[in-house]
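Quick sanity check, SVOP like:
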Amino acid sequence: RFHIALFLIMGSTGVVEAMEIMLIAVVSPLIRCEWQLNDWQVALVTTMVFFGYMIFSILFGLLADRYGRWKILLISFLWGAYFSLLTSFSPSYIWFVFLRAMVGCGVSGHAQGLIIKTEFLPTKYRGYMLPLSQVFWLAGSLLIIGLASVINPTIGWRWLIRIASIPGIILILAFKFIPESARYNVSTGNNKAAVATLERIAKMNRSVMPEGILVEPVNERRGRFSDLLDSKYLRTTLQIWIIWLGISFAYYGVILASAELLERDMVCSLQTAAKELGDDSEESRSPCHCRLFAPSDYRIMIISTIGEIALNPLNILGINFLGRRLSLSITMGCTALFFLFLNICTTSTGLIGFLFMLRALVAANFNTIYIYTAEVYPTTIRALGMGTSGSLCRIGAMVAPFIAQVLMSASFLGALCLFSGMCVVCAISAFTLPIETKGRALQVCNSSFLTQLQLCPHEKMILI
């Protein structure tokens, strides 16, 4: 019962995060028209969102390891909801960029929800329940696209942002039902709070606490950046950073490229038809061209977005039977291949098919690396490890708009080759990761002799 409730509440953070991140893709054509922006200015909006995300990912990860996951998660939601609402009142392009960057800062703390969920889930369930969290991200993405298709043509993008802020505000009210991680409390020596949380879980599950005590490990300093680069984790950390950067580069590249393909009619069959009809208007040649999404464009975005759960069953099987490393290597290699398929001259239906598979593959990549990163580090540096990885991830996200929205206009094949090449690098890095976490218990402390708590000689101990 507890795990189901936690899964639903923590999963809802993915809905909010998806809506805030996907918002840029659906409002870009409107702000381009309102403020007469060129490609570089439109790309800068997305880049600044991820710049804020990058800076605060490390900060929130550091603070979460020192002061608790729950507090940081609450602060990030309050921050994100506040600045998201302010964005809808932006009087100019500069203010819009600044306020969306502040939203990115807040959204970066949402990763602590995954940390809390990971630290409560038993080893045998993590490989199944964590990938299912992708359903919530999908729900958020579909919700924002559906709202945009109705609100953008009628009352405008400002009301879209205001309405999109409501789920985040509602979720803040549910924070009293979210417990602090018992693993975190034990790692800080706060056994009393950990026992209280476990008793609450036992009561919710209608079961009885086992007899015994929690053994407190040696009090280590928590959230030390140097531990990530310790000889035990150095190679793992560096390869994880490369993979996070590449996965984010590919994921947001697909999202932004999809919007760009639709906004500019870059399907070869449509371009040929336009040339035959002599469509060489001043608007189509202008660097500040203004073409709003049609209903059919929103439908294509919805279909391709649904692809994010298309491979979930196979992804879950791969993670649990092939292992995290091999599964990630395979999906990254396939992602590289499908990026190159976008260069094939095809119809609108063919484009939808390629985008559908790309969204499925990049979503599977994210599923796997999230699980692996949360499992590979000990409790004392788990949030910092996730935070630094998320920060490096946003470097890829910051670069993606300039490839998908700027370079793609100049050299379509060149942009696709960049995306594909990065995916190949990530596939190799994933295959050569030194640690496989499949079936591996979460580590408690950084010191090797403390990775497994010792049983008391005359008492049973509650293992969490």
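Posting the structure with no commentary besides this: Residues 2-277+287-450 form a domain with the Growth Hormone; Chain: A; fold (CATH 1.20.1250.20).
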